[in-house]
Amino acid sequence: MKSISEKTRRRLDIQGFEKVEESLLLETVPWLRFPFALCTLLAASGTLLASPPFLWALMPFSAIAAVSPAHPFDLIYNYGLRHFTGTRPLPERGAPNRFACGLGTVWLFFTGLSFYTGYAVTGYILGGMLTGVGILVSTINFCIPSLLYRTIFGFPLRSTAEQI
Asked: What percent of the chain has pLDDT over 90?
């Protein structure tokens, strides 16, 4: 049986998956990134189009993810894709992950507002930064907002900021 690398496990712990059994994470780790990859793709598209309505249309999804143990895009996997992969449903998302989605909601709002009010350069900077943060979590499980959450509220016993 394969195992998750220590670095990946620490990054998942920081996101709030510290109590999830390794066998479930092993099955689902690529799919835990799926909602963020989809959000990142959509936010990048809204930024490239400089479209406030496009960016603001993403806000309900990130807001729901901020208050729910499941991201709305987790449903695509849980009720569809997993039946093709033969894997179990995704584990619930912890507080650090939900904090990241809440921060993303605010970030989407201000990115859209920048474009709406004519501050396109600011909109592109904010949207580019949001896209960059999303790319990190979507590819290598490194979530800067979750790291910020853990810095404020504490790290799980298994990981520390220095081990990232």
From this structure: 92
Count the residues in the chain: 164
Torsion over CA: 63, 64, 68, 74 (sign): negative
b/e for 95-127, b at 16 or more Cβ within 10 A?
A: ebbbbbbbbbbebbbebbbbbeeeeeeebbebb
- The Cα–Cα gap between 96 and 22 comes to 19
Q: State pTM to two decimals.
A: 0.91
Owning domain of residue 146: 6-159
Q: Is residue 1 part of a domain?
A: no
Residue 164 lies in a domain: no
Question: In whole angstroms, what is the distance from residue 119 CA to residue 20 CA?
Answer: 43
pLDDT digits (tens, 9 = 90+) for 70-103: 999 999 999 999 999 999 999 999 999 999 999 9
Which of 141, 152, 113 has its CA nearest to residue 17?
141
pLDDT at 139 over 80: yes
Whole-angstrom distance, CA of residue 6 vs CA of residue 36: 22
Residue 120 lies in a domain: yes
Total domain count, the chain:
1
Cβ atoms 5, 164 nearer than 8 A: no
The whole-number pLDDT of residue 158 equals 61
